[in-house]
Amino acid sequence: MPTAVAPPARGRRPSHRRASAAGGAHRGRAASARPRVRWDRVGRMALLLVLAVLVYLYLSAGVRMLSTWRQARRDGAAVMAMKREHTLLLREHESLGRRGTLEQEARRLGMMRTAEQPYVVNGLPNN
Question: What is the model's pTM?
Fold first, then answer.
């Protein structure tokens, strides 16, 4: 006559091992008390780590862009100042290249031509 087997209780897994009389119950508890890997938590932690790395990469790129923009503004201001100075130097070069300006500057410094006779006038009032 066939014997009836009771279905496993809900919420419990059927045990495939037969417990011995002495320590079977202890081994079954130890196996179920062993820490199990919670893959859903591991997955969440991995996603959080990936999210943190992405946020770091975006922020570092933004900081670099901001510092590059500030440096470009400073360099642009320096370029404008150098352009103004260059324009002034070109004007001065053109004026010094003219014969009349060159002679006027030389006479202001006390120079004279080789064929000229120098005269010194003393006793003039200081203005």
Answer: 0.41
